[in-house]
Design a protein that fits this description.
Strand content: over 45%
Largest sheet: 7 strands, mixed
Oligomer: single chain
Structural class: mainly beta
Helix content: under 10%
Radius of gyration: 13 Å
Shape: globular
Distance between the termini: 37 Å
Order of helices and strands: EEEEEEEEEEE
Number of strands: 11
């Protein structure tokens, strides 16, 4: 199973980005999908997840991200998305997607498959 994250880039504060995570080599519709991020010098942190069956969504409790990020999936395209709005400089990080057949989870350890990450840089 391979995950390919894309959609990152340089954006001004207040702008928006949509990240994509394309999955190949497995049955996408049976995987829970998640996004994590890691800023320089910081630990990886959970951003959002979506289940495979009910498409229930789960978000970080971090107040800094609350209400600005939306996770979704399109099983016909084998792709998960992370819509990010009202971006802030503190959102600058490498964003990685992950997949797991028994998730979703709020922590990174159990996820079976990972993408390589896409850099998001938010300028002030």
């Amino acid at each position: 199973v391979q995950l390919q994250a894309s959609g990152g880039g340089l954006v001004q504060a207040g702008g928006s980005l949509r990240l994509s995570c394309a999955v190949s080599g497995g049955t996408f519709s049976s995987y829970a999908m998640a996004w994590f991020r890691q800023a320089p010098g910081k630990e990886r942190e959970f951003v959002a997840a979506i289940s495979w069956a009910t498409r229930d969504t789960y978000y970080t409790t971090s107040r800094s991200m609350k209400g600005r990020f939306t996770i979704s999936r399109d099983n016909t395209k084998n792709t998960a998305y992370l819509e990010m709005n009202r971006l802030k400089p503190d959102d600058t990080a490498v964003y990685s997607c992950a997949a797991d057949s028994r998730g979703p989870y709020y922590y990174s350890g159990p996820y079976q498959y990972w993408g390589q990450g896409t850099q998001v840089t938010v300028s002030s």
